[in-house]
Design the sequence.
């Protein structure tokens, strides 16, 4: 639906409508008024004599292809076939390289479009690498600006490699390189004495030594969870060591940074957590995430929210697996709008779906869109709508009873 009445009137009455094509730098983003052809590195049309916003359009368009609008395994695309009789478009390709550039296809009235708002953008996308060309023409196809809808969410798995190629000695290393640790622990037991003394029930204290090694539940096929809002999940043991009467463990929960943990607990009532030997890391970057190098599976685990703790009451004379650890995660730190609708409140957490979508679209880890590509006011309106109460408890009293 067109809400611009002036442009709607132009569409209803004008007989001199033309489609034009503008090419912008790869890092170009729309201003509040949209794309301005004065900022373009190339403006092209199918006929001569077209001018808009003080810019003359070069007659190089041979044919506009169909704008395909779809969302699914395939994304929106649009193609433009440029004439190449005098090698102008070939020279443009050699000088700038179409691949990655922003293509805008715009509809204007040659006589009445006197400002940006008196035009209509039919398509905006990122140019593909030219697949074929000739002395006569060059066809350029562009994908919708989101391009790949195959962005991986969550962004990483519990693999030993860092997806950005960082080495394990880098504090910002995000892989999970488990190195087994070994040791021994000594403990005392009371046993019967031999001979006649044992017959009469006499006992003696004997020192025993138990060898232990560290274990891990890491699985390279398992994703590091991304928690948007609040969620209760099971942790994944990065490493644990049964050192006798307790198990030292380091347990990962999700991608960070997060706001924090609540109700962290062992699911085995026989082996609760010793909260006096407990620490949390909220998934900050690099060394800021903290570490205790004496603990099981030492490392900063950059951007991985994890806990270090002890599960007590382990049997001294046998090696036992670490109990499952559950927690309520309050995550993920993101940007939310202020009271004016401006998306400027950083490092907040939210359970609002509008904030989650804003985060995914603008995050460098996911769709990488500049905020100017989004209608901030629309997102803020949706955010405020989602934040509204479904039940207004101020109007009356509510009584909840058990069914039956």
Sequence:
């Amino acid at each position: 639906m067109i809400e611009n009445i002036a442009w709607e009137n132009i569409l209803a009455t004008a007989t001199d409508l033309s489609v034009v094509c503008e090419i912008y730098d790869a890092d170009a983003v729309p201003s509040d008024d949209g794309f301005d052809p004065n900022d373009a590195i190339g403006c092209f049309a199918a006929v001569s004599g077209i001018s808009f916003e003080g810019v003359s359009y070069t007659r190089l368009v041979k044919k506009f292809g169909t704008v395909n609008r779809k969302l699914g395994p395939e994304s929106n695309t649009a193609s433009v076939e440029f004439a190449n009789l005098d090698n102008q478009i070939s020279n443009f390709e050699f000088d700038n390289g179409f691949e990655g550039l922003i293509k805008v296809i715009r509809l204007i009235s040659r006589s009445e479009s006197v400002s940006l708002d008196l035009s209509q953008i039919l398509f905006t996308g990122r140019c593909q690498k030219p697949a074929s060309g000739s002395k006569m023409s060059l066809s350029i196809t562009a994908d919708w600006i989101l391009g790949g809808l195959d962005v991986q969410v969550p962004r990483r798995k519990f693999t030993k490699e860092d997806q950005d190629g960082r080495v394990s000695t880098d504090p910002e290393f995000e892989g999970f390189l488990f190195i087994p640790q070994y040791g021994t622990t000594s403990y005392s037991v009371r046993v019967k004495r031999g001979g006649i003394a044992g017959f009469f029930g006499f006992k003696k204290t004997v020192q025993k030594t138990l060898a232990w090694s560290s274990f891990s539940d890491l699985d390279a096929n398992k994703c590091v969870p991304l928690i948007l809002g609040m969620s209760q999940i099971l942790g994944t043991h990065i490493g644990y060591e049964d050192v006798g009467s307790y198990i030292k463990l380091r347990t990962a929960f999700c991608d960070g940074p997060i706001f924090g943990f609540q109700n962290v607990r062992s699911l085995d009532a026989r082996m609760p957590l010793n909260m006096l030997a407990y620490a949390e890391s909220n998934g900050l970057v690099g060394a800021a995430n903290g570490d205790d190098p004496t603990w099981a599976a030492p490392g900063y685990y950059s951007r991985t929210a994890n806990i270090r703790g002890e599960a007590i009451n382990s049997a001294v004379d046998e090696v036992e697996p670490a109990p499952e650890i559950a927690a309520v995660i309050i995550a993920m730190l993101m940007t939310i709008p202020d009271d004016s609708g401006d998306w400027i409140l950083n490092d907040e957490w939210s359970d609002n779906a509008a904030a989650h979508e804003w985060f995914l679209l603008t995050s460098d880890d996911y769709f990488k869109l500049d905020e100017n590509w989004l209608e901030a006011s629309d997102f803020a309106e949706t955010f405020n709508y989602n934040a509204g109460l479904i039940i207004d408890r101020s109007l009356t009293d509510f009584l909840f009873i058990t069914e039956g």
